[in-house]
Amino acid sequence: MTDRPKIFTPAEVAAHNTAEDLWVSFLGKVCDLTPLMNQYQGDALLLPIMECAGRDISAWFDPETKDVLKYVDPLTNCVRYYTPRGRFVHVPPAGPRSDWVSDIGQPWWRDKRYEVGLLTSKTRWIRVINTLTSQEQRLQVTVHTHLNTAQQQVCSEETLAEILQRYLRYNSHACSYTWKHSGVSLDMSRTLCENNVLDDDHELQRLRLDQNLFCPALLLHFNDDLTEG
Predict the structure, then answer these.
(1) What does pTM read for this prediction?
(2) Which long-range contacts link 40-43 to residues 24+ away (Cβ below 8 Å)?
(3) Sequential DSSP letters for 117-147
(4) 43, 86 in Cβ contact below 8 A?
(5) Tens of pLDDT along 148-206?
(6) From the CB of residue 67, how many other CB atoms can be counted at a distance below 10 Å?
(7) Which whole-number Å values give the CA distances from 93 to 74, 97, 220, in the listed order?
(8) Alpha-carbon distance 147 to 134, whole Å?
(9) Which residues lie across from 68 on neighbouring strands?
(10) Alpha helices for the chain (secondary structure H)
């Protein structure tokens, strides 16, 4: 499997919503700002970030420049950063300040050290059914749309092996099962679509059918082997 960024759902980002564990997403990226919170602990400039903990803050940024939005101050005719929630860490003050350290290096929104993955551009639901116990679990998996080097829109869907990692919280012995769909064993190194578990959401929307009633089911068949857990 090729090395690629981890893809997160909005719900996964939203789970990190405290000062001790703070993530945000913006412009398709997911960033763990916990080290930033620790570095500037007690600084009032953290408040706008804390207010948006676990949320998407793409509205703060220009999608073309990848920088914080700017505007022309009508009083000074100078270009300023647009921060309606208040100035935040690494945003320079509106005027000269003796307490502003300008040599900060890369601002946090451009610093790749904070990046932990990508925000999914779409999710789809599947049902995972344990045929041994009849236990059923609904999982939300990701489909990430992006531009490749040829500027063509492509989708990077999670592989079954990555979906299995999500499912381990419900069954720690999930590796001891054979995963099947429509009676066919699934290739865990491939995505759902590559395993012919197609995403019919758009077609269901076109037909005005309830997507919850047509959620594909993956059946887990026990291998009588608990050595993998």
Answers:
(1) 0.72
(2) 40/89, 43/89
(3) EEE-SEEEEEEEEETTT--EEEEEEEEEEEE
(4) no
(5) 444 443 445 788 998 998 899 999 999 999 999 999 999 999 988 889 998 888 888 88
(6) 13
(7) 16, 7, 57
(8) 41
(9) 61
(10) 10-14, 34-39, 47-51, 160-167, 201-206
Instruction: Give the pair of three-digit tokens for residue 82.
Output: 């647009």
- Nearest Cα to 52, choosing from 85, 92, 7? 85
pLDDT at 227: 55
Give the C-alpha distances (Å, rounded to integers) separating 20 from 46, 54, 187: 13, 12, 39
CB 9 within 8 A of CB 123: yes
pLDDT at 102 over 80: no
Q: Distances in Å between the alpha carbon of 59 and those of 16, 38, 189? A: 19, 25, 36
Token duo for residue 47: 């408040």
What is the chain's length? 229
Structure tokens of 26?
Answer: 């913006």
Sequence-ordered list of residues with C-beta below 8 angstroms from that of 194, at least 6 positions apart, any chain: 187
Place of tokens 């005005």: 208
On average, the pLDDT of the chain sits at 87
- Tokens standing for residue 72: 């022309």
pLDDT at residue 95 greater than cutoff 70: yes
Give the residue carrying structure tokens 């990226």: 29
What is the structure's pLDDT at 36? 97
